[in-house]
Amino acid sequence: MGRSALVCLLVMPVGVLLGWPFSLKIRSLADSSAGLVPWAWGINAFASVGGSVMAVMVAMTRGFQAVLL
User: Fold this and answer.
1) How far apart are CA 11 and CA 55, in angstroms?
2) How much is the pLDDT for 15?
3) Closest CA relative to residue 39, chosen from 25, 52, 19
4) Under a CB-based contact definition with an 8 Å cutoff, are residues 65 and 59 in contact?
5) What's CA 7's distance to the chain center, in Å?
6) Contact at 8 Å (CB) between 67 and 58?
7) CA-to-CA distance for 63 and 68, rounded, in angstroms?
8) In this predicted structure, what is the pLDDT of residue 40?
């Protein structure tokens, strides 16, 4: 239980910092060009899935050090 809480406390600030710009951009797109909001969500989803797949492929061929770099 203690390790899980520690990991959450360490990862949470990074998650907030990484998620903040996207939500701000979605809000500004909704104000200026509402038709681009679905495109932004689609590109974000594609990049998330593609990044995960690429990380696995790089880890299998080059190792986890290369993924971290």
Assistant:
1) 19
2) 87
3) 25
4) no
5) 18
6) yes
7) 9
8) 94
Predicted pLDDT of residue 13 = 93
Are the C-beta atoms of 67 and 59 separated by less than 8 Å?
A: yes
Residue with tokens 């492929």: 57
CB atoms under 10 Å from CB of 26, counted, come to 15
What global pTM score does this model have?
Answer: 0.67
CA–CA distance, 58 with 43 (Å, rounded to integer) = 22
10-44: pLDDT as tens digits: 999 988 898 889 989 999 999 999 999 999 999 99
Cα–chain-centroid distance for residue 66?
A: 18
Specify the 3-state DSSP secondary structure of 33: coil
- Amino acid sitting at position 64: F
Distances (CA, A) of 25 to 11, 31, 41: 23, 10, 11
